[in-house]
Amino acid sequence: MEGGIIHGGGADESAFRECFSLTWKNPYVLRLAFSAGIGGLLFGYDTGVISGALLYIRDDFKSVDKNTWLQEMIVSMAVAGAIVGAAIGGWANDRFGRRSAILMADFLFLLGAIIMAAAPNPSLLVVGRVFVGLGVGMASMTAPLYISEASPAKIRGALVSTNGFLITGGQFLSYLINLAFTDVTGTWRWMLGIAGLPALLQFILMFSLPESPRWLYRKVLMGREEEAKAILRRIYSSEDVEQEIRALQDSVETEILEEGSSEKINMIKLCKAKTVRRGLIAGVGLQVFQQFVGINTVMYYSPTIVQLAGFASNRTALLLSLVNAGLNAFGSIISIYFIDRTGRKKLLIISLFGVIISLGILTGVFYEAATHAPAISSLETQWFNNLTCPDYNKSGMNTNAWDCMTCLKASSTSCGFCSSPNGKEQPGACWISNDSVKDLCHKENRLWYTRGCPSNFGWFALLGLGLYIIFFSPGMGTVPWIVNSEIYPLRFRGVCGGIAATANWISNLIVAQSFLSLTEAIGTSWTFLIFGVISVIALFFVVVCVPETKGMPMEEIEKMLEGRTMEFMFWKKTSTKPVEKHNQSA
């Protein structure tokens, strides 16, 4: 086991202040946190950039534009790569160290970015997405682990939250980059290729930084204890460092007594150990629910959702998505401030309450938009007879029942809705969808819709999306990664973190691969309703299964899991007492 000193409740109130004061008191700790946190930037940039790039990939490759499954494949193959990357990352972290795993992730990400930028066809683009995914998967579980192990207990939550801030900062940056390249030749190639720059930057920075001191200390057979002690002395104050070193030493010695060697990880014991099992239930559950409440449908498909809400222009969709990305980044700053004051569990519960309300708003708005879509004008549609949607002609006497949504869901041929010159909510034309027809519609000062229909409810959809992100980001956005970086015993931390991250990416893949198909099959409103029901289940899971770890040294977290009971009264303050040096296993 490992540990240190638990400070009193009053210290919680100054955790954010103390974290901020590291800028001049101990910039070395911040340098470690932000350099490793660039892994979060890679994660966030890839999540955000593909949503904008996809709009232009569809324009360049007609096979992509007409195939929803292929669009989902381009998005989700990075997630499939991340599943493998996270699984390998857990093993690589324990075998080669946290720093080496980050360097491997950077190389894979850089290689993938180059392949994507040069891709001559959708197949090679998918290959590049797989390599990027491998890098993102490794970085997603390694960065918070490295930061957690190199952080003082009292401000550990705030420092690991910097990784969450850089994830959302990467998403915001990706939308800025998307907007910057909208009028440049090779639009999407620039968007995807420039992603290699932060990977290259982190690769250079990590060469000058040390390995995780806790990982080094466990390598007793390699004689790296003194190296670990030197790093810990740079991280902790002179009053705390010796007690921290003693607690870490006790931890490793206990492991050797229990396992016979601190180098061995017994997978059977991993499943049987009460502390590990309870930690995995909480950690894996949080990672799965983080995805199943729908966040990455919002981030991967944000411009598409904006278009579904009735905003026709690609540029407008990207601009409005930029606002959502900015709110996401703002929410992660809130998390840095409150995570060590309010606590992990309270923040999760407040977050999920807000997410449920927001998804209820989105469900209602998209239902109203679908049931009040503009009608199809027979006169407008047949004005150019050769442009009329074939399904409209086949419907015969039933054309009076057609509206914009019916037009966009035409099965035999891709069709679009050209709004009326008298107003976008007035009856318009249902024509076949291609670039020539789109240009003809625009020449008559009309708007062209292929993803969603014009609606008076569009701004309410944006309000719902904004509320969703503001509530999600500080809690469900950052806390699952923080909990998973601190809840497992040291000897199992790499493996368990890899298991949890792999569960996150598998859930991510399921959601990313199914979202557009769900919206086409059952409608956008019912899709968001499903996410809302899952969010209610997630709320009950957090109340029952997730412990509060605020301000606790990792030694105490392990002890707490050993004797944990179901605690529903999460609002009560946990008593905090100094941790005594001991040689007893949890």
Automatic annotation (TrEMBL):
UniProt keyword annotation of Methyltransferase present: no
Domain Major facilitator superfamily (MFS) profile: 32-550
Record's bilayer topology term: Multi-pass membrane protein
Subcellular location: Membrane
Any Pfam family: Sugar_tr
Main location: membrane
InterPro entries recorded: MFS_dom (IPR020846), MFS_sugar_transport-like (IPR005828), MFS_trans_sf (IPR036259), Myo-inositol_Transporter (IPR050814), Sugar/inositol_transpt (IPR003663), Sugar_transporter_CS (IPR005829)
Spans through the membrane: 32-57, 69-89, 101-120, 126-147, 159-181, 187-209, 279-302, 317-340, 347-367, 457-483, 495-516, 528-546
Keyword field: Membrane, Transmembrane, Transmembrane helix, Transport
Family named by the database record: Belongs to the major facilitator superfamily. Sugar transporter (TC 2.A.1.1) family.
Name the UniProt record assigns to this protein: Probable inositol transporter 2 isoform X1
